[in-house]
Design brief:
The protein is mainly α. It is built from twelve helices and no strands. The chain starts with a helix and ends with a helix.
């Protein structure tokens, strides 16, 4: 039930499978989208865990930082509480994927299933936004239920295995462009004006300059 306009034709997606069987999947924005888009399905469970722990002072504080930042940028009257919470969860997942990629590139040891591959805590890079690591803070302080810990381990294993499917020594352009636009609904992107500038427009502008 994936959107064919976003992910390409069935034949294009199927063409990735034989390549993956022989080795790495070619590192393109289109392949990255088709491989990682299913991760969005976990947003419902992640949202449930977030709501279960929203009364925890650590989570509440981190969420308020995020919420205040959005309202400062877009205006307090333009965002409902539910929209902010939904975006909070989506941005949490996107950061997990981005951090896992960076950890794979920078670390010699990369073990899918370990929660640490989804976090920038203790790392020497600053791509990780602390308020989107609320789930990891809960785990560090032993606040997660066993089934919740297992959920994050499963999520780490799934994201980690997908990251390992690509050859990160390949040179490529921005692989997150299509994935970000697929994760953030068109309604939200129209409201916030959050769009990636199309590559053809960038090239056109540079040529004129």
């Amino acid at each position: 039930n994936l959107n064919s306009n976003l992910l390409g034709s069935k034949s294009e997606i199927e063409s990735v499978v034989p390549v993956a069987a022989r080795g790495f999947i070619p590192l393109t924005a289109e392949n990255f989208l088709s491989i990682f888009f299913p991760i969005k399905e976990h947003s419902k469970k992640l949202s449930e865990i977030f709501k279960n722990h929203l009364d925890d002072e650590r989570v509440k504080t981190l969420y308020e930082v995020y919420s205040n930042a959005l309202q400062m940028i877009y205006g307090k009257g333009d965002l409902s509480t539910e929209k902010i919470k939904e975006l909070f969860i989506i941005h949490t997942i996107i950061q997990m994927i981005a951090v896992a990629v960076l950890n794979r590139i920078r670390e010699t040891v990369f073990r899918p299933g370990e929660l640490e591959i989804l976090t920038g805590s203790g790392r020497d890079f600053s791509i990780s936004l602390p308020f989107l690591e609320w789930w990891y803070k809960l785990n560090l302080f032993g606040k997660l239920q066993n089934e919740e810990v297992e959920f994050f381990k499963k999520l780490s294993r799934e994201i980690g295995n997908k990251v390992l499917a690509f050859n990160w020594e390949e040179k490529t352009r921005d692989i997150f462009r299509l994935l970000y636009e697929a994760f953030i609904t068109e309604e939200y992107r129209r409201q916030f004006g959050e769009y990636y500038t199309p590559p053809w427009l960038v090239n056109f502008t540079l040529e004129k300059l």
